[in-house]
Amino acid sequence: MTPPYPLGSSDREHRRLTAQARILRPWTERFLRRGGLRPGMSVLDLGSGIGDVSLLAAEIVGPRGRVLGLDRDPVIAEKARARAAREGLADVVRFEVADLQEFTAPRQFDAVIGRYVPLCQRDPAAALRRFVDCVRPGGIVVFRDFDVTNASPSWPKCPVWDGSYRLLSDVLRVTGATPDIGRRPSRCFMDAGLPHPVVESLTPVASAPGSPLLDGRRTAGTLGPVHYGARARVPRSTGAAPLGLGPQLP
Ligand SMILES: C[S@@+](CC[C@H](N)C(=O)[O-])C[C@H]1O[C@@H](n2cnc3c(N)ncnc32)[C@H](O)[C@@H]1O
């Protein structure tokens, strides 16, 4: 069984996801494009939440492309559908309610993508493995996540900031999620049977006045959580050497 989504399903959490997505949009877009997302592609977005990554992908693939967002929470999926309609993207992006553990893809996609979703799984590699066959040969897999356990203390000291790291990490752990997945994306891809990924890391810095993270005038040295992005292209012929599923490293 997959763990429940630790942050729940409330208007407040949905507003938080939207605010977070605004901050993350530039890097997510760059990462999706660098990973190979192009106009006309078909895309599967795992754990689509309130729809930000799916909608961004829909903008990139354009009217000739298609995006399917998957989330097991029917309330959030309905809100994502309403956003797609409001933004005039309903012809390009659809949202379906399904658990990743039970979903059977109707066909292959050019790209399987996701943000902050391996983090929510008890066994992220097993969750990804179910979707390897959903990517056509030559297609791409693009995921990003963060490492909540790698806290960077605030300066000047902000107890709420520092405490929230510990709290979030503890909540994720007790609910069966994987708060440190961000530090081992390569292992996760290889164990899922994917090629060794290209991995990038980024750390947001609360450094400017008016920063959405913290007030930059007080917290010039405060770093956000370390984010990792991993991307790989599925080989055109299966059985090629770079595929994972080799012996597990410790
Ligand atoms: C942290 S949110 C991220 C949402 C979105 N990807 C974003 O970046 O804005 C994780 C989402 O994944 C969904 N989720 C987590 N595990 C899932 C599973 N096993 N099956 C389907 N959805 C899942 C949750 O319901 C939640 O909406």
Features:
250 residues, alpha/beta, Rossmann fold, two-stranded antiparallel sheet, globular, binds S-adenosylmethionine
Can you characterise this structure?
The chain is α/β, with parallel strands linked by helices and 250 residues long. The chain has a domain at 11-145 and 178-203 and 227-233: 3-Layer(aba) Sandwich (Rossmann fold), CATH 3.40.50. 31% of the residues lie in helices and 21% in strands. It has helices at residues 11-35, 52-61, 74-86, 124-129, 159-174, 185-191, and strands spanning 42-46, 66-71, 93-97, 109-115, 135-147, 198-202, 205-206, 222-223, 226-233. A 7-stranded mixed beta sheet has the order 3-2-1-4-5-9-6, with helices on both faces. Strands 7-8 form a two-stranded antiparallel sheet. The longest helix is centred in the first third of the chain and has 25 residues, at 11-35. The two termini are 25 Å apart. Mean pLDDT is 87; it is low at 239-250. S-adenosylmethionine binds at residues 2, 5, 17, 21, 47-49, 52-53, 70-73, 76, 99-101, 115-117, 120.
